[in-house]
Each structure stands twice: as C-alpha cells, then as structure tokens.
Amino acid sequence: MSKIISASSKAIKKLNTPQLFQGGLYLTWAASLLMLVSTMSGIQGQRHAINTIGKESTPSITTAQRLKDAAAGMDAYIAKELLLPSGQNQDAVKGYQERYEKLTQRLVAAAESISYGDKERKPIETLQLELGNYIAKIQQARDFHERGDTNNMVVAYRSAAEIMDQKLLPAADALDKVNVDALNVTYNKEKFDSGKSLFFIVISGVALITILIGLQIFLSKRTRRTFNPMLLAASAIAIAFLNYTTGAFLSASQNLRIATEDAFSSMHTLRQARALGYIANAAQSRYLLDPAFALNHEQAFFNTIAKIAKPSDGETFETVAATASASGYKPNFTGLLADQLKNITFAGEREATVNNLTTLGTYLAIDKQIRQLERSGKHTEAIALCLGNQPGQSNWAFDEFRLKANQKTFDINQAAFDKAIKQGFRDVDGFEFTTPVALSAIAILTLFGLLPRLKEYA
Description:
458 residues; mainly alpha; 0% strand; elongated
C-alpha cells in the first residue's frame, strides 16, 4: 500500500499545473456523478420501502386481522342470538349480519391483493370454503332453534363452533402471519440498505467537497488568487446539498421507524386484543348455551382473557390500572396489553391503554356475576345479565372495552402511522429534480471556475 501511495505521489508531482487543474476538474465531475448515483439509488430505495410498508404490507395485515375480528364477531353474535327464543334478540341478528358482510368484503379485498402466492392463497381459500360450511351449520342451528328443538340446535351450533375454532380463526391467523413476516423482512432489509445507502451518500459527498476545497487551496497557492468565486459557490452547494440529503434521508428513516416499530406494532397488538375479546365474548355465551360443556367454555374464556391481560398473583385489573398510569411504568402482568404498555409513544396513548385494562376488569367482574347466577340456578337472570346493554351489564361492558378503550388506543396509533408515512414521502419528495440540478450546477461552476486559469496556461 505504501508503495502504491509513493508511486501515486511521484506521478502527481510530474504533472504540470494545467494538467493538475484538468485532473481536479475530472475528479469533481466523477465525484458529482458518484453522488448523483448514490443519492438517486438511496432515495428511490427509501421511497420503495415507505410505499411497501405504508401502502402494501400493513393494509394486508390489517385486512387479515379484520377478517379474524369479523369471524370471531359473527360467532359471538350468533351465540347471543341462540340464547333467547327465536326472533327475540334482533340486536344479535343485526350484529351477526354486519360482521358477516364485513367478513365477505375483507375476503374479497384479501383475494384481490395477493402478493405472496400460495402462502396467502391457501388461507384465503380455506376461509372462503369453511365460511360456507360454517354458515350452513348456523342455519341448521337457527332452524332447530325456530322449531324449539334445543338439543339439535346445540348440536348444530357445536359443529359450527368447531369450524370457527379449528378452521376459520387459524386461517385468518395464517394469513396475518404471512404478511407480518413479509413486513418484518422488508423492514429489516430496509434498515440495512438504508445504512448502506447513507454511507455511500456521505462518502461521495465528502469526497466531492474535499476535492473542491483542495482545488481552491491549490489554486490559491499556484495562481496567487485567494478566492475563486465559482469554486466557492460549488463548494457551498455541495455542502448544502449533502446536509439537506443526509437530513432528509435520516428523517425518512426515522419516520419509517415510527410508523413500523412505534405505531403499527401497537396497532397489530390492539387488533389482536380486539379479536380475542370477541372470542372470549363468544365463550361467555357458549357457557350459558351449552351446559354439557360449560366447564370447557369457561376455561376457554379465561384462557383467552389471559392472552389479552393476566395480572400477577395478588394483583387485580384495578390495581394494575392504577399503577400503569404512571410514566415509566414497567408491566408486572402478561398479555397483549402488557406488550402495548411497553410501547407507549404518543400523546394520550398511555391513558387510553390503561382504560383498556379498566374496562376489561369491569367486563370480567360482570362475567363473574353471570357465572354466580348460573351456578345458583338463575339461568334466565344470567342470560339477561349476559345480553344486557345497560351500564353494569355484560354487552355494555364489552362495548366499553371494544368500541371505546380499544378503538381509541388504535385510532391514536393509526393517526401517528398515517402521519409518519405521509411525512416519510415528503422527506424523499423532489430529489429526482433537485439532485441532478444541484450536482450539474457544481460541475458547471467548477468548469467555469477553472476555465480562465486553464486559458492562462494555454
């Protein structure tokens, strides 16, 4: 290496002043071209990553989660419908129909946006096929229910519930996983590529600035002219452009991080909690609908709730919510809401998340009353408490958790996600115009700065 440097030094010393000026000019153009390529490549890669995560992957994940949400909601509503005599629970009939319509709409959306081949296609096909089987079993249960044949109604509903639990919900989870895995791969690749692109941008920019400053110093020593206005202007543009590009690149990377790690991570967690809430709500109604398997449904209910949040021994939802309000709180419980509390980032997010715990605790307290009534032989009163929409009743408490607490927390993160993605696009906007203009200006200014000196030696 030292021999190469020594040989290069000797070769440079043999060059006369005009040759050195020409060499500096060509080096400036080469460095400008290198910076042009590095900047355009890096910015386009950054824009592609923002578009993939903001416009392609996350909507597909959200669709998969909403598929599960809608399917679980259908089952929760039909179980409520079957708890009362046929035709007496129109709210549940309406809720079932609304969830069914949303499920079919999202199935169409998922089928139209397949990006990963059979990994997505197979879960979607399972959802389409098994949804028909589920609806057929539900219709059988409704027919038996209308005739007052409770035993056969329960048997038909069991078959439907088995399809829901073993086919539909796992297929929705599989579709979600495919897209989440793809998003993680894209995001991790983007972080690596972003660092690599930024490195080349900075290196090429620093090389360009160094050459321009070196030319200015050499010109000052050889020609006794302290300043060359054209070279000074080229240097100023190079410094400003490198600063602007680096800042935009870092800002875009930061906004993508906020959208992915801060906002979307919470959105995904909250959507999972919402779907699990519907599954637990269905298990609560199954407990009253199917006494022969009441213990199984009761255990399923508590297992599902534990996935949302499970206080440690000696703690209750009330005590957890009271301590979780403090900034810097580290969750001493497990579940999705604990994960969410570890990712508090935005204004109002902590308060909204704590409200998830509070409303879930209220829902569980009412569920306890339902089970006490059922065990005391007060089946009708237990059903009334389970289906009631007034404050202090189960449907009311569940809606407080689902529609107010969970949705509000989700909306906070959705707004932050949208803002970060929008700002990310703004950060990388216009570089296709500004980059060639700025670097062409540097090349031209360098040429006109050196041309008079070259003519002097002609």
